[in-house]
Amino acid sequence: MKKYILILCAIIISQVSLGQPTEQEDKDAIQAVLKAQRLAWSDNNIEAFMEGYWKSDSLKFYGSNGVTYGWENTLERYKQAYPTADHTGTLSFKINDISKITEDAYYVMGEFHLKRNVGNATGIFMIIFKRIDGEWKIIADTSS
Fold first, then answer.
1. Digit-coded pLDDT (tens) for 2-48
2. DSSP run (H or E) holding 108
């Protein structure tokens, strides 16, 4: 009987662990969001870039002009600050750290580099990703 209980426990544990993504799978999924954002930005498609963000009034963007609340307001902020392809340019990232906060949240620290006709720009960022309805979304962003 003891043998069957041990086998049953092993099966249950393996099934539970198979249903949860590993930390590396989470990081790979987050990197995929960042890649999609980088490509969309470099194609001057700010709307597609914003797909990486949580579409909520609770989204927070902290920039040099203070806090912007909400997805729509953040989209408008980006559109005003980067009105043309000359302003968006080509985006690249250097990811310095992706660290787990909780089971469904990570922070990402890195650098951004914009190569563009109106002058190159560089800066740093820290973003917080949260798994929402099975998708990784940015819920808070601070960039400077």
1. 544 444 344 444 444 456 789 999 999 999 999 999 999 999 999 99
2. strand 105-115
Residues 114/120, Cβ–Cβ less than 8 Å: yes
Could you give all domains of the chain from N- to C-terminal order, each with its CATH number?
Answer: 23-143 (3.10.450.50)
Q: What is the DSSP letter of 104?
A: T
pTM score = 0.85
Please state the φ and ψ torsions of residue 56, each to the nearest 5 degrees: -150, 155
DSSP letter, residue 86:
H
The yes-or-no verdict on residue 1 having pLDDT over 70 is no
Task: Region of 75 please: left (phi>0), alpha (psi -120 to 50) or beta.
Answer: alpha
**Token digits for 81?**
């600050």
Alpha helices in the chain, H assignment, sequence order: 2-19, 23-42, 46-49, 71-81, 85-88
| DSSP character at residue 44 | T
Bigger pLDDT: 19 or 134? 134
What residues are paired with 56 via a beta bridge? none
The two tokens of residue 87 are 């302003």
